[in-house]
Design a protein that fits this description.
The chain is of the alpha+beta class and 236 residues long. The protein has 11 helices and 5 strands, in the order H-H-E-E-H-H-E-H-H-E-E-H-H-H-H-H. It has a 5-stranded antiparallel sheet with strand order 2-1-5-4-3, sandwiched between helices.
Amino acid sequence: MQSFSAHIERMEDCEAILEYVYEACREEAALWFSYHFTPIFESPTSKNTFIWARDYPFELQKKYFAEGYRELDPVPQLTLDHGYVLTWRRAMELGASDSDARKYFEVFREYEIENWAGFALYGPRNRDAFAGLTFRDDPECFDEGRLTHLHTMLQTAHLRICQIIEGAQPDVSLSERERQVLVWMGRGKSAGEIGKILDISSETVKTYTKRLYDKLDTNDRVTATVRALKLGLVEL
């Protein structure tokens, strides 16, 4: 764990940090990974919550983002409210009295995500986040030390991301086109996809991306997006 923490502390790229912690979680038999960064004073289901995910089935992602279930997802808030780690079954119990929560759990039950756990991640000045992991085996059968180890890794990564994000400059301003490019970057689109959406070339998108990185003092899209959210420059 000391080597993990030391490596994280040397990293300056938020996307690289998330890739690193994702690989570490895979070594603990995690199959799917998501990280949800909530802007200060907003809820985890806010449209401005930044989500970075790996390996979730396409159909599940489509339903979650395109069909409005992201706004209904009760799990991040339940996890933040009820402890550091929350399993899927426990979340269902806690949400049983809420009709929207029951609807959410019923819809997503078909994706066989019972072997899932949520981790509450707390940062300075209410910069909280949430991570969700799906495993090969039931996390309720894990020994406490294994879940604590996972939570410690995720919390370490989140705190480092918070430190990096604090480097944002308060006087940054974006053109309308830069803002459009950044919004689609935050939604996970590639330069080619953004070019098609905005009817510009991918090379032009890359030029705007470089300008964004310069203005937001970063070299990766995750840091750029979250810093812009912090400064109120964009909404996702």
